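For consistency, the fold was encoded as tokens, which produced the following:
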Amino acid sequence: MGLNCGIVGLPNVGKSTIFSALTSAPAEAANYPFCTIEPNVGVVEVPDTRLEKITGFIQPKKTIPSIVEFVDIAGLVKGASKGEGLGNQFLGNIKQVGAICHVVRCFEDENVVHVHGKIDPIDDIETINIELCMADLETVQKRLGNLGKMIKSQDKQTKDKANAAKPILEQLVESLEAGKSALSLSLSEEEVDVIKDLHLITLKKVLYVCNVDEDSIVDGNEHVHKVKEYAEAHGMKCITICGKMESEIADLDSIEEKKEFLSDLGLKESGLDQMIYKGYELLGLKTYFTAGEKEVRAWTFHDGSKAPQAAAVIHTDFEKGFIKAEVYHCDDLFEFESEQKVKEAGKLRIEGKEYVVKDGDIMHFRFNV
């Protein structure tokens, strides 16, 4: 799975505006469909107050945050799965991302045209979802059509894999034809592993991003309430964001100015920060830290990783030659205020290859290559 989130939605819902604010890298934004054709890619720092606190106690020469990648994918339209509006190209881009941030227009503005001529967020969501289901259906049916040869294969491994895939693919066809995502089938990890090479779009987790006007950022509006109900009913997450306001925040020079801007609106954090957190979460990512006088750094790892796999994020040699890991949690540092006092309190541990790394661990790896 890719370590990135694809930003999707109908044309003119504010995707490129949000992406530009998110990455401070201006994507082309215009009041007409398909102004974004090639996907824009942006690497975004993950806001983490723990990193700031660790830096305060360790006082390194430099601090490096963890990152997550966002991809601004051009607006999909009805018929995209059949090639409408360069749909095949856009759908191909979505296949490459690890999770989806689906931007939904939840604002009224007669100066910004809607591709369907009306504001109806649930209809917009369903339009996108149907196109994604139809694209996956074509992929699944193509694989099903090739299974006959595989089942008759003399190679036992090929034959066994085809037999295992057949009932799963048949379930998928039934679900996708009904306009229901692959994710709605709640396939087991083993079943997902059998079909993972298909890179099904509707098997990806989705965050619904309600793009609202400035008046609706705190309490939302009727459109937002509908999207939240829809997201909850389908086991998805939903956030509210004002793309126009986020663009204004992104233009401010200092963190202090940004905090003051948000405070005046009665907000603790920006919508973009929420989007980054949720995107990180959707991808199944966690953070551990390395801390020393030269640098304090946040490292991204997959939830459930054991110490050697987490060490490989720094360098593959760390995994190959892994011996042990010195570990304590950042909460221990916040309590005892220095690494020496953490050691004296008996909170620093030596862990081996089977240790499952926790979000917020501070680690030092021992290895030999």
